[in-house]
Amino acid sequence: MTHILLKHATIVTLNDEDAILTDADLAIADDRIVALGEAPADFAADKVIDLSGKIVAPGLYNAHTHAAMVFARGYAEDMPLDRWFNEGIWKLESALTREMVRWGVRLAMVEMLRGGVIGFADHYFYMDEVAQAVVESGMRANLAWAVFGHDGGEVGITVPETVEFVKRWDGAADGRLRAMFGPHSPYLCSDEFLARTAAVAVREGIGIHIHAAETGGQVEASLAAYDMTPIELLHDRGLFETHTIVAHAIHSNPIDIAILANSHVNVAHCPSTHMRYAMGVTPVPEMLEAGVNVALGTDGAGSSVALNLWREIRLAVVMQRQARNDPEALGGLTPLRMAARNGARALGFAQSGVLAPGFQADLMVIDASQTHYQPIHSVPASLVWNTEPADVRDVMVAGRWLMRDRQLLTLDEEAIRAGFDRALAEMMAKPLGQFKTYEVDE
Amino acid sequence: MTHILLKHATIVTLNDEDAILTDADLAIADDRIVALGEAPADFAADKVIDLSGKIVAPGLYNAHTHAAMVFARGYAEDMPLDRWFNEGIWKLESALTREMVRWGVRLAMVEMLRGGVIGFADHYFYMDEVAQAVVESGMRANLAWAVFGHDGGEVGITVPETVEFVKRWDGAADGRLRAMFGPHSPYLCSDEFLARTAAVAVREGIGIHIHAAETGGQVEASLAAYDMTPIELLHDRGLFETHTIVAHAIHSNPIDIAILANSHVNVAHCPSTHMRYAMGVTPVPEMLEAGVNVALGTDGAGSSVALNLWREIRLAVVMQRQARNDPEALGGLTPLRMAARNGARALGFAQSGVLAPGFQADLMVIDASQTHYQPIHSVPASLVWNTEPADVRDVMVAGRWLMRDRQLLTLDEEAIRAGFDRALAEMMAKPLGQFKTYEVDE
């Protein structure tokens, strides 16, 4: 058993009282936090680390991404969402390879870890590659294999195959891995397929990660076809009878919000993508007020360009303040709590996201002694509004350092860069497929 | 004469064609760029620098700030603007000291330089201290001494004294310093004082830097008192008959925009502050379309917490996309152009902000070889959406390196930190003044 003692830190706990401790200790035994504030007199540390001037906080969770899509970073800019899909991303993805996913997810993990992200909910293809990468990296993840399901069958992977995928990985890597179903969305999956997926999910005890309600047009189309909003439809077809992550849920009305709250649905809010593609303003304060667990995601780099949770933390705030003309919206630690504690819960890591005895030792160390943090009148303000990825010095998951002094300890960045460049060159050399003609808003 | 040759760089010129050169040279003689693309065969470089994997772009300008106000970073959060003034900032400022300005501006310069900011338009008090700091730092700046002018006289500094201040510094430090008048605003200066300031400005050939149209309430109050909007009033009283920077101008109607354009007024748009305090959405696309020179500012750290122009660059875009439901608003290099080229023009540095032969060698070097930039499908997208201050490696002003490999060459950071801490402790130990009761919206 390894005992680590962090000393003289400012500790942002994100516990129920939002307690912030100053000049405090944090004692870690193996994978868990055993004491906070002052370490027990009999705590025999193998390693004592002085964190004067540093802030320790729970690590961040990226609650919705397509990590490997870093290959599409900046590929389809400054256009409406339907053109982004049809002329950009789907065209490029027609050439997707297993190798591209293998190296893409690793490149994304380098970027995320360097910014204090300790876990991510991934929704993509070739997900065994992603699982293997997560095992190696020491991060946490919740993996969903994306399926476009139609009445005539599934595209790419079948429901029985995704059951096998989930059984292979859910709970693996000492519990660092969770796996779920990934039906793409109510607009790209048939009604019958969604109901079938839900039935299997409930029977097998498997969660679901799905996109919904991204545009007003999707809501209108759903109302026209089913006389139900996308959220009502998912609820009606049984998808909320298990642990569910709904990405986006931008166009949610008060009834939708009540359904999300009563069904304990986790919402992954992705402000960079929503703002960049003018998709609308999610009623996040109303969701939080109703008790919905709203977490934050970057979405894929194809739409957000950067996998920077700090940016999402701040955009979540300013988006609401602008939209509702309310300078008090989502104040204090609220956005950080969404990114860390709510993220942990959304991904199914109930023992993470809070710094408290008994919880997993999942944390990041931020160098708030730097000049651009001075002076610190308010720890929440400085942490939320001054921190960029480069300010995160160390990252720990389950008591294991994954980054120390900005050196990655589990990922071989040089090899990843070489593999990524090779896979991308091979993919870009392939002929790109036909434009798909599916209209997102229809 | 010093000759420097930068080689193998990706060069974002921000010239009229928005040209981007790859694997290009940039030749510098003394303070000026002499060649771009390929260096002349007879260019004898004293120093050759390989910039493979790096992006070179014009340095950024912070077109509206109160730099020394870093002392108020995070001091008054999550509240409406009138409470921010009355309960927060003005209370703290009642204890302001010359020492606090001396060290505050230096701390701010460390933060700005580290993020690629080469010049700033400062609007504050004890401005001789700021001027001295700019001389030492090697940066550019346009300095305005803030005046609250009433019919009975000026608070703090008189108009003749500001004339002396301007004459002392305008054009100093080999032209790196500009100085202007700084009447605070139409809501904190009397009508008569504004007219008097404008008359002296025109007579003496002095520019003006002023706040205006920050809230809807200010516009209503101006209409009630003068039957003119704040922009119309400033125009009518002659403040636009010289080189003028108007900070904010958020609540500008089409007639205001026409006035700003026809009068060649420079607008300093500060999205962090506008969004955090829910002040409204400036019609920036309409202003640009009308020919208004819109630059970007951080405002003071008392309202923006960070002096990070990259954040302003991105917020300027997403603010518009959200507000007008337009995913194509301010695309490509537009926001960078606002921060660099438009900023240089706003501050009165016509030979800066563009990388072209004959222009000043004012530039930043960005390390786009890092993992979080990969792959680069689009230089504009990667530069605008992936760059954080920590990615800026080098900064040059007038051919002189102010930062190399993130080491500051003109500022003594350790001494600045010590001086800042001392000045802040002295200021915070003073009794704070009465709350001012001025209502911003009245």
**CATH topology (level 3) name of the largest domain in chain A:** TIM Barrel
- Specify the overall morphology of chain A: globular
The CATH architecture of the largest domain in chain A can be named as Alpha-Beta Barrel
Number of helical regions of chain A: 15
Low-confidence segments of chain A, ≥5 residues, pLDDT <50?
435-442
CATH superfamily of the largest domain in chain A: Metal-dependent hydrolases
Helix content of chain A: 25-40%
Q: Could you describe the 3D structure shown?
A:
Two copies of one chain form a homodimer. Helix content of chain A is 37%, strand content 24%. Chain A has 442 residues and is an alpha/beta fold. Chain A has two domains: 3-58 and 352-408, Urease, subunit C, domain 1, CATH 2.30.40.10; 60-347, Metal-dependent hydrolases (TIM Barrel). The longest helix of chain A has 17 residues, at 413-429. The N and C termini of chain A lie far apart (57 Å). Chains A and B meet through helix 2, helix 9, helix 12, helix 14 and helix 15 of A and helix 2, helix 9, helix 12, helix 14 and helix 15 of B.
What would you say about this model in short?
Chain A is of the alpha/beta class and 442 residues long. In chain A, 37% of the residues lie in helices and 24% in strands.
Question: What is the secondary structure topology, with strand pairs?
Answer:
Two copies of one chain form a homodimer.
Chain A: E1 3-12, E2 20-29, E3 32-37, E4 47-50, E5 54-58, E6 60-65, H1 81-93, H2 98-113, E7 117-124, H3 127-137, E8 140-150, E9 153-155, H4 159-169, E10 177-183, H5 191-204, E11 208-212, H6 216-226, H7 230-236, E12 244-248, H8 254-262, E13 266-269, H9 271-276, H10 284-290, E14 293-296, H11 301-304, H12 309-324, H13 334-347, E15 363-367, H14 379-386, E16 392-397, E17 400-404, E18 407-408, H15 413-429
Parallel strand pairs in A: 1-4, 1-5, 6-7, 7-8, 8-10, 11-12, 12-13, 13-14
Antiparallel strand pairs in A: 1-2, 2-3, 5-15, 8-9, 15-16, 16-17, 17-18
Helix pairs in contact in A: 2-3, 2-15, 12-13
